[in-house]
Amino acid sequence: MKTKYITKGLIASLLLMLAFSGCETFNEPVIENLEVSREFSPIGLKATIRNQTTVELNWTVKDDEDADHYVVEFSADDPEFKTIYKTLNVAPTELPVQVPLEGETVYSIRVKAVSAAGLGDSKWSVTTATTLSEQLLSVVQDADIEAKQVTLRWTPNSNVTQIVVNPGNVIHAITPAEKTAGVAVVTGLVGETDYTASLFNGTKKRGERTFKTGIDIGTGILVKPEDDLNAKITEAAAGSVLVLMPGDYQVFKGEIILNKPITLRGLRPGDKPKLHVKFTVNAGTANLSLVDLDLEGSGVGDSNFITISGGSTSYGDILISGCYVHDYLRALIYGNASAAKVASFTVDNSIVKNVNTNAQADFIDFRNTYVASIVVKNSTFDTCSVGRDFVRADAVAPANGFSGTGLTTNVLIDSCTLYKVSNTAAPKRILYLRFASNSSTVKNTLIVSTTGIYTNQPATTMPTFSKNYYYDATSFIDGTIINNKIDASATTANPQFTNAATGDFTLGNQTLKDNRVGDPRWIK
């Protein structure tokens, strides 16, 4: 009995003590400042590669942090930081910070905070970044390219030992004088060949550039500005290559009528010969190549630049490469010849400005004429096809055309800059494809300042889109437009052109540069 009451008394005492203890806890003051002995580690540490070998570092700096600065350490191909490659101090106000490094290296990067209040250093925050190939080589200028040799330039006094040019594995050992000057001439090349030049220090690549050697005239026909260009073409045999010296060709202006395969090309890509002509393509013109020319149309009348005229004929490849084509009132190419076929029409590495500005045709305009392939790449189109469509392929059935016969028209637009194209009359189309079987792809392309759309035609097969950017061009993603086939992967961003009004579309937006969007000539 006594044991029972003793037990009850102990339980009651314990409960009473716990109650008083709980009350005391609620009376303790709120902790407003956390007592710590060291700085907090940086959070949100991010490393981004800019321009091949520069890493941009950023992390979150809170308003209540007392960090005086941060210590950043880099180790190269060494995740355990046994050897520190580079160390720097970064103030909070210097973020984000860009650090140039060597190429083709995996860098381990750690950052710690150093207190301004006498606390201990924080623990390290760690990330990694892999640099791409270095780029000490300068872009190869047209003036430095010849038929059998090239002059290459790089940052003077850099640690470099040799240049390797391929194809052909042409090796040039760099002399002390060349190393100091940052210039070397590599010989032993072949004309009209696409080369890749790699700059090395031992086995580590420190730069790489591509170029194409100039024409080795060989059996080509040399043409001078004082010559009658039309007469020279008439005299030439089928398949001839006419190599034009730099200059302004004023002796003949107007229409050149072709009935045989021919190539016209400038001798020096950096000093293009200027022609004031238009072309009419008749039966017998198996192929037409226009390369490294300045083609000006203000004096050729209200007409197209190239017109396919001969019907019931199969044509081969029509190429515009490395050209500046400007001031033609109507289409860049117009094909309305009945029952005619064109294997391909290609525009590459060219600038086309103020072409098709009177709204009397479409820009690349195939109607009765069937075209198998349209390729537009690495090029800029400035104020073209005003109020009209950019690419047109009509559904003309036999006997005048080939729609519905099992043939397909394929269109590719890749790495192009389109500015004020198919503008002013909404909605005009970039892809006005009505040929019964068609496919189209648009990728790596920048479209700016237009009311245009891709297409609102039920007959146009849904295009394939990849990595395209738009600015002041909202209709390409406007699903409220009837039948509009939008780019669901579109990104909108200001390209920050240097001066679009003067034709300088150099990108200022770093993200577009990193993603290699638009005509490559403007990515610097």
UniProtKB/TrEMBL annotation:
Keywords associated with the record: Signal
InterPro entries, A to Z: DUF4957, DUF5123, FN3_dom, FN3_sf, Ig-like_fold, Pectin_lyas_fold, Pectin_lyase_fold/virulence
Claim: Signal is one of the keywords in the record: yes
Signal sequence annotation: 1-25
Coiled-coil zones: none
Alphabetical list of SUPFAM superfamilies matching this protein: Fibronectin type III, Pectin lyase-like
Record's protein name: DUF5123 domain-containing protein
